[in-house]
Design goal:
1 helix, mainly alpha
């Protein structure tokens, strides 16, 4: 190798290490950005899930009340009118 070729290799080596380091830093920053977006999205989904759980819980209590009221109403109807329209006895068992 000639004198200039050796200098050229010596000059290129530190720059290639620096370029490699810059690319690595860029990759780390891109990964951080992606992770930040994913973390934000995960928090949003968790909040939506918690809201849905709350809604479901309130609906379950309403359904329980409605079932009780419906059963009670049917029982009262049988007590009020124990016979069907054709005159046969209605049974609730």
């Amino acid at each position: 190798m000639g004198k200039y070729a050796q200098e050229d290799v010596a000059v290129q080596q530190p720059n290639s290490d620096l370029d490699l380091l810059r690319r690595f830093i860029d990759l780390i920053e891109a990964e951080r950005s992606r992770n930040s977006f994913q973390d934000k999205r995960i928090k949003e989904v968790e909040q939506q899930y918690a809201q849905l759980e709350d809604r479901l819980s309130s609906m379950e209590s309403i359904v329980s009340i409605l079932r009780h009221d419906t059963a009670r109403q049917a029982e009262l109807e049988y007590m009020e009118n124990p016979y069907s329209l054709d005159g046969s006895p209605r049974c609730n068992y």
